[in-house]
Amino acid sequence: MTLDGTTCARNRAMLAAPMSEHEQRFELLADLGAMIAGEVELDDLLATFADRVARALGADRATLWLIDGATNEIRSRVATLPELAELRVPPGTGVVGHVARTGEVVNIRDVQSDPRWAEKIAQKIGYHVTSMLSVPVVRRGQIRGVLQILNKLEGVFTPRDDEFARMLAEQIGRALDYTTLRGDDTQRGLTLRGRFNHVIGMSPAMAAVYEMIVRAAQTDATVLLHGETGTGKGLLARAIHVNSSHRGGARAEAPFVHVDCTTLPDALVESELFGHERGAYTGADSRVIGKVEAADGGTLFLDEIGELPLPLQGKLLRFVQERKFERVGGRETLAADVRIVAATNRDLAAMANAGQFRSDLYFRLRVVEIVIPPLRERGGEDIVDLAAHFVDQFARRYRKGTLRLADAAKPALMAYGWPGNVRELENTIERAVVLCEGPTISVRDLGLERRTTAVMAAVVPSDSSLIGMQAIGVPAFGSTTAVGAAPAAPDGAITLPDDLRLEEAERRYAVAVLERCDGNQSAAARALGISRNKLARLLRP
Ligand SMILES: Nc1ncnc2c1ncn2[C@@H]1O[C@H](COP(=O)(O)OP(=O)(O)OP(=O)(O)O)[C@@H](O)[C@H]1O
Ligand SMILES: [Mg+2]
User: Fold this and answer.
1) Nearest ligand, CA of residue 259?
2) How close is the Cα of 521 to the center of ligand 2, in Å?
3) CA distance 446 to 350
4) Are 413 and 299 part of one and the same domain?
5) At residue 529, does pLDDT exceed 80?
6) 231 lines ligand 1 (CB under 6 A)
7) Judgement on whether residues 24 and 109 belong to the same structural domain of the protein
8) pLDDT by residue (tens digit) across 174-205?
9) Is residue 241 part of a domain?
10) Do 26 and 118 have their domain in common?
11) Residue 372 three-state SS
């Protein structure tokens, strides 16, 4: 889901000279393939989809219908329908209802003489239909929707058209796996829930988050995303961007620029954000624009805002208030029209009280504050849905064929505390997919019960000279089920190994905490109560 992929697909579509029908068919399949490889946003693709399908098939119009898993209604998802935003058809009605029920490919020369034709659907849009080709969209053996192409411009739909439409429908079926147009797998159809590609979770806690995001996205308001590490702040920041409907959706088309405040060296933050003029300092031999300027027209995502050094907070405040800035070494005052989304897992209010974060900046940033719940508060269904999503994703990436979670794995996933949230779940499933033999992922493959023990093993070598040493327990950050305390030696005494220097003990402990945080250095540094730089020093062998 990279911005570049999306942009490339669009640019290709725009820049191309008039293409033959054959080329159009090829491009369409290639774009769907890229979408499946995760480089293109389905919604971006779908926005131009109906037109492109119609053109590639030499027809006048095309519509993609999806079955709403909640109501079984068939809803037009994208269509060349300037007259109506959406059509809803009850199950079984019309040709579309017939295809959705039977899964047949239906190629009709003249719909008026076909008994399945429902004139009232056409009447709703006041469009005269003659020929029609309808193919089912099938995903994992279930009918999820119908692709319908209307009015062949010359002649009638041929068997080659049937074949191409079938291929398209098959790709769409696969592409649907990558979106949250997903329903419960036990249900027929898909639950339509707007533009939240790749964001999984139907719990009330997440529904409230989506609601806030959609509302905030309609305005240019600054949004502060607050949540524990790995809860999806980065993903949701992007969701705000792609859902931005302000200025007719132009913001969503403009760049999304990510600034990670933890990785910026103090001395360079200002120039990174605002750019610098030639000669601003030694080595600055050309003018460089900053992230703020690069984001003009789009979204500036200030990630880990709690880590921004205090002196820079003042400079950022001015920009947040006025959207004005100067490049380092420059005199000209420039303006950038950006929406700001900031994210943090720190308690900014407490930091403001303690004088570690400017309270005026804090208030400016939290115009809309969205609290993202930790995974353990979203309920078991979200955990299992996310796990299933990651199983599919990694099974494809590692070419493992169709994989499923063992029934016993689900309660184990639900019972675990997930201190590292969705990222930890994602990593757990990735490892399990790699390790599992055969088509089923067992509880053992998940390795949840070993987690704390593995940490201790990393700290205390299994060397016999250490028997009796009190193992160092790594705190189980906020987890209710993970075991944090280590067993004490019988007499409570600590037996120290001869050869373990403090420096090395610290290093092993830091490595263990880092593993516990699924490799997230910021989270590990926070858990240890040290800076990221200090952590980096500790980790050096
Ligand atoms: N609801 C979700 N559906 C699907 N994938 C998700 C969801 N939430 C998070 N992820 C995935 O989990 C991983 C962690 O998410 P992300 O990086 O957005 O979290 P974060 O809150 O920014 O974490 P940190 O505070 O550590 O930066 C990413 O790979 C992301 O794609
Ligand atoms: Mg993040």
Assistant:
1) 2
2) 11
3) 37
4) no
5) no
6) yes
7) yes
8) 777 655 443 333 344 444 444 455 688 888 89
9) yes
10) yes
11) strand
